[in-house]
TrEMBL record:
Swiss-Prot/TrEMBL GO biological process terms: establishment of competence for transformation
GO cellular component entries: plasma membrane
Keywords: Cell membrane, Membrane, Methylation, Transmembrane, Transmembrane helix
SUPFAM superfamilies: Pili subunits
Keyword Cell membrane listed: yes
NCBIfam families referenced in this protein's UniProt entry, alphabetically: pilin_ComGC
Species assigned in the record: Salipaludibacillus agaradhaerens
Membrane topology, record value: Single-pass membrane protein
Main location: membrane
Name by which UniProt lists this protein: Competence protein ComG
Cellular location(s): Cell membrane
Keyword Transmembrane helix: yes
Amino acid sequence: MMIVLVIISVLLLIVVPNLSKNQTVASDKGCEATIELIKTQVVAYQVENQKMPKSIDELKNGYVERTTCPDGTELTLVGDQVKKVSSP
């Protein structure tokens, strides 16, 4: 019985850190995908309107549903680049 508990404990010590690491990687990839989507929609906006959007909020009108990363990080337009808004 004690051996079973030790084995389960060792497995938990191995699995739990990997789960949290995978969540961080997934969150980062989700944000990268959102940024790429918004960049693509900036180009679509530019083609349809013959001008750059003044702000990322202009893209909410038919181009993108949200302008934040899945983890809630705000995004903004700087020229034709999409950047994460850094926290104060």
